[in-house]
Amino acid sequence: MNKPLLAALATLVITGAGMAPAAAATQTSGAASAPALAAVDFAGTVALSNCSGSVVRLPASADSDPALVLSNGHCLETGFPAPGKVVVGQSSSRTFGLLNSAGTQVATLRANKVVYSTMTDTDVTIYQLTSTYAQIKNSYGINALTLSDTHPVAGTAIKVVSGYWKRIYSCTIDGFVYRLKEGDWTWKDSVRYTSACNTIGGTSGSPVVDTATGKVVAVNNTGNESGGRCTVNNPCEVDANGTVTVRQGINYAEQTYQIPACFGTGNQLDLNRSGCVLPKP
């Protein structure tokens, strides 16, 4: 997985293409005839102590709702959730550095709980903040990113926005992986990037933004760094027939379109809502 930064530095290994942090992905521009794209910058992203993340809202969120932060399950401050483990409602006082469009930190936001966290089927942690969306907007002029509630499609142009590194990677969705296996964990219907998104340690939890809509379609989480087969930091793809494929240097994300169906009024988690397919405790 795109290891939290401290783990990455401790092993002197950078996840993804095995490149030094200064080697950012080249950003590409669309053809002249392409439709206008949504502006994708750092506004609304956050830097964690060892990962990246973003302030997100659901399609039905109200400005008065407590704001949410999205990152990876493996970025949870209490450690990686074990396979089959789902954390709900855990107290947290974690802080997040809120960035503006230029990537400058303008505030420190604080959580009061972990709403949801798991590394089973997906790799997400969702925090609830002590601030509402309206308070963040009024104080800092920054809007939350909106989670898409529809499945993305292959070929979609995306940007992976790392609040930790203040770096944006540009590529497209190469395809989807039936099962992505890494060590003891297995993720379903993962997003595979084209090679230009050579994400590194510290980019874990970065929002994956559809450049046409500006909405979050996935959360960056892992990559095969040395060609290993289904081991930690070397995930493998497993198709419906059980065939294993290893793609060294290729990176992945977990889709987030399933999340909105699991929240009701007031940004309240309800895993029993109709249409909610996130794993339950």
Could you characterize what this model shows?
This protein has helices spanning 5-10, 133-140, and strands at 45-47, 52-57, 66-71, 86-91, 95-99, 105-118, 124-132, 145-146, 157-162, 167-182, 185-193, 207-210, 216-223, 236-238, 244-245, 251-255, 263-264, 268-269. By secondary structure, the chain is mostly beta strands. The protein folds into two domains: 5-25 and 35-40 and 148-255, Thrombin, subunit H (Beta Barrel); 45-145, Thrombin, subunit H (Beta Barrel). A six-stranded antiparallel barrel has the order 1-2-3-7-6-5. Strand 2 (52-57) and strand 3 form a beta hairpin. The protein is globular. The model is unreliable at 6-34 (pLDDT under 50).
